[in-house]
Amino acid sequence: MTGTLHIVGLGPGGAEHRTLAATRAVRDAEVVVGYGAYVDQVDDLVNDGQRVIRGVMGEEERRADEALVLAAEGARVALVSSGDAGVHGMAARTLARAAELDDGDRPKVIVLPGVSAAQAAAAVAGAPLTDDFAVVSLSDIHMSWDRIEHRLRALAPSGIALALYNPRSSRRTEGFDRAIAILREARGDDGPVVLAHDVTRPGEQVERTTLGTLDPERVTMRTVVLVAGDTAAEAGPWLVALRGDAAVRA
Ligand SMILES: C[S@@+](CC[C@H](N)C(=O)[O-])C[C@H]1O[C@@H](n2cnc3c(N)ncnc32)[C@H](O)[C@@H]1O
């Protein structure tokens, strides 16, 4: 007997940015599984009759397996992930593990999209990601810094806007400094940057700065960094990226 596993993107934090489908999947689940902080994000939905399994950082695979096993045994399981589960979230790892199961043992798996941090941050700043953009994680936990740097060096001269996830922790500061140095080398100092902290959560702060003047000490793991592309410009209080050759900054 197999159950259902919903891999749920919860949005960036605030309940009002959660989709109805995500809300329903968590409410209807018999078991809610997730990293502790993400389980806290659905406090308002969880009830006493549900089993809640709080995982720790770095044990994503174990969490995925636990959720799959419970669903394979017949439970309705919600595996919660922040933002969009498919953007540096739990979806890919969990689907890869599900694919390893025999067809008969595999529960039904449904991925529910959510508002990613970059989208939420962009909306507060204006519309800086309307033209092309790329999402880059600076975390070197699963990928070597050399490869991350290779990707940054390819993207830097392209002029494309960037959303930098997992930018800087108290232990991991050097990568962010290098990323900004690579971008300054290719794009100069004046390119607009948005530092968005705790977007849609209590304490939200969104700051505008530039590649040349940004203070790395302001950047933490609760920050998503938007580096404007070459079509971004100020429009009143907003930063907007108007797609078009005429908009490209020299
Ligand atoms: C493991 S990634 C998860 C990304 C998530 N799946 C998404 O789509 O937003 C964690 C990183 O996302 C960014 N992030 C997630 N939520 C955020 C928020 N509310 N405000 C600012 N940054 C956030 C930060 O860069 C953080 O280090």
Structure characterization notes:
- With 250 residues, this protein is of the alpha/beta class.
- It folds into 2 domains: 4-112, Cobalt-precorrin-4 Transmethylase, domain 1 (3-Layer(aba) Sandwich); 117-247, Methyltransferase, Cobalt-precorrin-4 Transmethylase, Domain 2, CATH 3.30.950.10.
- It is built from 7 helices and 13 strands.
- It has helices at 20-28, 36-40, 60-72, 91-99, 117-125, 145-155, 174-187; strands at residues 4-9, 31-35, 51-55, 76-81, 108-112, 126-127, 133-137, 161-165, 192-197, 205-210, 223-227, 232-235, 238-241.
- The strands form 3 sheets. The protein has a 5-stranded parallel β-sheet with strand order 3-2-4-1-5, with helices on both faces. Strands 7-8-11-9-10 form a 5-stranded mixed β-sheet, sandwiched between helices. Strands 6-13-12 form a 3-stranded mixed β-sheet.
- β9 (192-197) and β10 form a beta hairpin.
- The radius of gyration is 19 Å and the shape is elongated.
- The model has no long low-confidence stretch (mean pLDDT 96).
- S-adenosylmethionine (SAM) binds next to β9 and β11.
Q: What is the averaged pLDDT score? A: 96
* DSSP summary: helix tally: 7
What is the succession of H and E elements?
EHEHEHEHEHEEHEHEEEEE
Shape verdict:
elongated
| Proportion of residues in β-strands | 25-35%
- Tell me which oligomeric state these chains represent: single chain
CATH class of the largest domain: Alpha Beta
CATH homologous superfamily of the largest domain - what is it? Tetrapyrrole methylase, C-terminal domain
How many strand elements? 13
CATH topology call of the largest domain = Methyltransferase, Cobalt-precorrin-4 Transmethylase, Domain 2
List each distinct ligand once: S-adenosylmethionine
By secondary-structure content and strand pairing, the structural class works out as alpha/beta
User: What is the terminal-to-terminal distance?
Assistant: 62 Å
Low-confidence spans: none
CATH architecture of the largest domain: 2-Layer Sandwich
**How do the strands line up in the largest sheet?**
3-2-4-1-5
Provide the helix percentage: 25-40%
Domain module count: 2
